Amino acid sequence: MASEETPHGSHAPSPDGGDGHDHYWYHGDKAALTRRLKRIEGQIRGIQRMVEDDQYCIDILTQISASTKGLQAVALNLLEGHLAHCVAEAQTSGDPTAAEAKVKEASDAVARLLRT
């Protein structure tokens, strides 16, 4: 995956094949990811309503747990894809520095996920 450094330190997407737009590997899964995130957004709104309506605290905590698990599932999906696509491509590129950088990116992402 050829990429360019962006001002924020992340990498710009590579062209996906000539349609004039740049896409990350998950472009084909975007609709499914969006549906899952909208479902989670609805859960969060439901939690907000529960608090506004003075619902029982354990019921609210149960919904928070479900929302958290949903976000974790999305995160794991993205991490698996990053490993399968971005890290794998960097490993086969022949550029050891790029490969190390992608592995470090993945490792840092895992560390952030575990801190939550």
Counting structural domains, the number is 1
By DSSP (H or I, 4+ residues per run), the number of helices equals 3
Question: How much of the polypeptide forms β-strand, as a percent range?
Answer: under 5%
Rough shape? elongated
The biggest sheet amounts to: none
CATH architecture descriptor name? Up-down Bundle
Query: Given this structure, which CATH class is correct?
Result: Mainly Alpha
CATH homolog superfamily: Metal-sensitive repressor, helix protomer
Task: List unreliable stretches of 5+ residues.
Answer: 1-20
Please report the distance between the alpha carbons of the first and last residues. 30 Å
Can you describe this structure in just a few lines?
The protein is mostly helical and 116 residues long.
Description:
It is a single chain. This protein is mainly α. Helix 1 (30-52) packs antiparallel against helix 2 and helix 2 (57-92) packs antiparallel against helix 3. It has a single domain (29-115), classed as Methane Monooxygenase Hydroxylase, Chain G, domain 1 (Up-down Bundle). The chain contains three helices and no strands. Residues 1-20 have low confidence and may be disordered. It starts with 29 loop residues before the first helix and ends with a helix. Its main location: cytoplasm. It comes from Glycomyces terrestris. It holds the Pfam family Trns_repr_metal.
